[in-house]
Amino acid sequence: xxxxxxxxxxxxxxxxxxxxxxxxxxxxxxxxxxxxxxxxxxxxxxxxxxxxxxxxxxxxxxxxxxxxxxxxxxxxxxxxxxxxxxxxxxxxxxxxxxxxxxxxxxxxxxxxxxxxxxxxxxxxxxxxxxxxxxxxxxxxxxxxxxxxxxxxxxxxxxxxxxxxxxxxxxxxxxxxxxxxxxxxxxxxxxxxxxxxxxxxxxxxxxxxxxxxxxxxxxxxxxxxxxxxxxxxxxxxxxxxxxxxxxxxxxxxxxxxxxxxxxxxxxxxxxxxxxxxxxxxxxxxxxxxxxxxxxxxxxxxxxxxxxxxxxxxxxxxxxxxxxxxxxxxxxxxxxxxxxxxx
Length: 341
Fold this sequence. Notes:
CATH architecture of the largest domain: 3-Layer(aba) Sandwich
Number of helices: 6
CATH topology of the largest domain: QueA-like
Strand order of the largest sheet: 2-1-17-16-14-3-12-13-15
Structural class: alpha/beta
């Protein structure tokens, strides 16, 4: 299967550069994955498609303000790093720009010395490993000096940093937002809950794979980077009961989907766990965990459009995307949403 099979034409002006004032007022394309039938709604209408026989699963990870700008201590050259993952206490992997200026032993000062990063390992594709030195609490320092790691296709500055967080974000750990969840407001979640829908949370810390395009020609040759996920005992028990009761499990976003499918694939049921996954979902794939999916519109030739194509067939998804382009939906992180039922 070729990566180009998942390409589509997208006018640049449809790539959303800023979030809407009201999170839930984005548009919602409702897609029947069996028939390909499409309805055009708004995201707040999602409540009409849910009932007491549904379980909604959201990813409660929180995005680190992980894009930081500093200067090399020896030459004062400007360096940008994007923190990806804490490997061990105060040791982080990061994407670095310009990477050629950062070698083993390079020291970079951030926030006028609030944080000093020393490169201790070089990896391919601009990735470096840094040992961090600071006084105080690391996350508080990051909140002072860091910016949200917006994707490269967003060129406008974010006026409110919290708009790249979900309203239910809990613990810092991600290098990017689980963007399908950005459409929910606290009021909308309350309406959904009042309708009898059970709302559960998992955690997947979005990592390096988000920033890596598919660089091979054949889909099967692509290697997904590993990401850490977590499920509590209570959530596992409730999901197992939902499955047994024939309830519909609706995943919010591809990150929640990858978490649920990873656990089912490994254990054949939901279990309490904290592990890593590099699951790569593309057609054909038999979904065992989820029954419906809320997701955004994804980049051409990306692993994410491959995942949704596995869920609703490539033909149905690419036709829906074609219609979304024609109807001028907004695409990618700050764009509109799909409900694939």
